[in-house]
Structures are given as structure tokens and as C-alpha cells.
Backbone:
């Protein structure tokens, strides 16, 4: 432990969830909890969200999904969308996880495992709407849905959702993606799927564009108070940062103080000289990030044991740091290692 602390304000998190629910009124909210709830820690984040009425959780990998099941209880819906091997499919079905399916081979393996267990796997079929990351290609969609319907009729799976992921980079591209998505939903219904949920939007589109909300929005960043790089400010969105990172001053020099937090703790060294951080007497430049320590511009009467706020609180936000090095705020958060204590 370095003395650095990531302070997680669960009241701010709860207020962000309320802001999201107001904004997307009518649609349900899936809280995305990948990367240990964007570095905030699923152990406290998931129960807090359950207490605030969140029913859906989006865990990328099966391991996180199973952990979330333990934290959220039997009634929550937990969605995992990483394509995995048969052992993990079995573990997911045992934990009653909903599976996102972006290719037909995965669908067939889920059906096989489910048949072997006497289970009924709930699947959400993913249409590739242009990102080409994962997803069933539009030209293969009808045949894939037909296969899924065959497995539905034999009682081993249930197609409960159609979903996709969009870039949220340009409205025009997102509109094209939405047309493809609507076409895929129409085909699924035409072939007899009784869909429970259609989901397409993440934070940015779910806030900005009502027509992208459908039945369910998958929100990560905004729930943690992380605005989009280059996007609207937190106060315009009605959210606030949940996490703040503090580091302790270990020594004081004429021009700079040293703090016990460095690149080995996950603070990117390329932040050196590019941002300011919060000190007891206002903002000072972050002069250098070394492996286990960093230096910050000194202030009058600085003392060892003082605290510097790297982001959050009245200092800069994680997204401000991200923007200074051409990345997103999430990246700043998820890089922080377990060396940094979490305080709730
Ligand atoms: C990460 C992720 C989200 C959440 O995105 P935010 O911009 O953080 O809200 C939603 N859907 C998928 C598939 C994701 O990978």
C-alpha cells in the first residue's frame, strides 16, 4: 500500500443512478460493471445499485458475472457478453446469467451445454451494426435467428434479447447502426422471437438520443460520474464524479513536493507536465510521474503528510486527465492497481 487512496462516494454514485433513471425514463438501466466497476470495486458498487433499484448488471466476463450474482442476489439479471469456452458457459448457466451471443458457433455451444444440463439458457443475440468487433453479420442474421429458434423449440435456449454496441462518435454513423438494428429486431420478431429487451445505447447515446434507448440502456461511465472525452460537462449531464484519488506528500523540496504514487500504481507517466492537481492551497502542476513517486509543484508551508488530490473532489476530473493524454476518463480509473486502497 502506498498511502494513496481512491475515495468512492457511494452517495454520489446513488445520485448518478437516480439522474440516469430520470433521463432514460421508460427504459430500464443496466449498470455496466466491467473492469471491477471501472475501478470502483464491484463489492460495494453492486449492493449499492441493488439498494437503488437497479435490476440489470452488465459484466463483460463470466467470472465478474458470477461474482455479481453473489452480490446482487437471485432476482437480479446479469448479462455477460464475452465469448467463452464450454466450462464457463456451464458455470454461467449454473449462476443463471444471461449470455450475449455474437456468433453462431457460440450459440451452438451454449445450446449443447444447456441441453446437457437440462437448463434453458437465456441469450441476447448481437447484430453487428458496424463496429465489426463481435456480432452476427447482417447477411447471416436471418439464418442465425432461425438456428436460435430451432433451439428454442427444443427447449434449450430462450432468445430474450437483441442487442448491439455503437461507436457514439458521430450521429450519422449511429443512425445507420440503428437502422441495421431495427431491421434485425424485425427479422427476429418475424421468425417468432418473443423479445423481452432490445438494447443498443451506452452512456452517451442513452443521454443524448431518446430513440436509442429502446427497453434497456447499458450505462457504465456516467453512473460513475465520468463524462465522455470531448462531450458535455458533468453539470450539464446532471452527474458528478464518484471517485477521487489522493496521494500523501512524503518530502518537501524548494520547488517540488514528492508524493507516494507513481506509474507502478497505474498513474500514466505521460501525464508528467501536462496536468494540474489539487493541493491544500490550490492547483499545482504535476511535474513528473516516476515509477513509485511523483513530484508536484510546491506551495508555501507544504508539509510531509499533506494530501494532494490527483483527480476528483475540487481538482480535475479523471476525464480531464484522460483528455490531456488523448484517452478517456475510464482509462485513468481502470489502470489504477490494487496497491491503491479503496475507501467508501
Ligand atoms: C463498456 C460498455 C458499455 C458501457 O459504456 P459506457 O460508455 O461506459 O456507458 C455498454 N455496452 C458495452 C457492450 C460495453 O462494452
Residues:
Amino acid at each position: 500500500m502506498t498511502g494513496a487512496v481512491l475515495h468512492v462516494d457511494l452517495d454520489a454514485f446513488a445520485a448518478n443512478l437516480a439522474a440516469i433513471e430520470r433521463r432514460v425514463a421508460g427504459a430500464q438501466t443496466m449498470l455496466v460493471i466491467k473492469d471491477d466497476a471501472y475501478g470502483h470495486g464491484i463489492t460495494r458498487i453492486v449492493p449499492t445499485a441493488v439498494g437503488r433499484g437497479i435490476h440489470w448488471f452488465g459484466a463483460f466476463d463470466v467470472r465478474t458475472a458470477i461474482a455479481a450474482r453473489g452480490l446482487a442476489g437471485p432476482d437480479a439479471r446479469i448479462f455477460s457478453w464475452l465469448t467463452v469456452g464450454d466450462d464457463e458457459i456451464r458455470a454461467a448457466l449454473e449462476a443463471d446469467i444471461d449470455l450475449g451471443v455474437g456468433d453462431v458457433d457460440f450459440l451452438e455451444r451454449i445450446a449443447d451445454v444447456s441441453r446437457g444440463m437440462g437448463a434453458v439458457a437465456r441469450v441476447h443475440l448481437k447484430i453487428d451494426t458496424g463496429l465489426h468487433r463481435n456480432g452476427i453479420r447482417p447477411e447471416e442474421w436471418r439464418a442465425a435467428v432461425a438456428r436460435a429458434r430451432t433451439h428454442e423449440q427444443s427447449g434449450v435456449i430462450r432468445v430474450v434479447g437483441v442487442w448491439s454496441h455503437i461507436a457514439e462518435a458521430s450521429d450519422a454513423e449511429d443512425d445507420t447502426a440503428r437502422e441495421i438494428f431495427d431491421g434485425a429486431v424485425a427479422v427476429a420478431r418475424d421468425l417468432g422471437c418473443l423479445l423481452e429487451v432490445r438494447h443498443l445505447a451506452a452512456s452517451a447515446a442513452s443521454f443524448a438520443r431518446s430513440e436509442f434507448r429502446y427497453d434497456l440502456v447499458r450505462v457504465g461511465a456516467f453512473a460513475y460520474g465520468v463524462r465522455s472525452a470531448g462531450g458535455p460537462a458533468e453539470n450539464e449531464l446532471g452527474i458528478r464524479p464518484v471517485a477521487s484519488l489522493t496521494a500523501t506528500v512524503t518530502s518537501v523540496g524548494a520547488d517540488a513536493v514528492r508524493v507516494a504514487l507513481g506509474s507502478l500504481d497505474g498513474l500514466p507517466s505521460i501525464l508528467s507536465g501536462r496536468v494540474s492537481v489539487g493541493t491544500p492551497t490550490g492547483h499545482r502542476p504535476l511535474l513528473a510521474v516516476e515509477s513509485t513517486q511523483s513530484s508536484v509543484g510546491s506551495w508555501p508551508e507544504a508539509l510531509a503528510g499533506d494530501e494532494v488530490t490527483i483527480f476528483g473532489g475540487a481538482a480535475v476530473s479523471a476525464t480531464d486527465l484522460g483528455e490531456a493524454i488523448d484517452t478517456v476518463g475510464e482509462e485513468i480509473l481502470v489502470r489504477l492497481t490494487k496497491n491503491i486502497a479503496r475507501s467508501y
User: Anything to note?
Assistant: The chain has a mean pLDDT of 96.
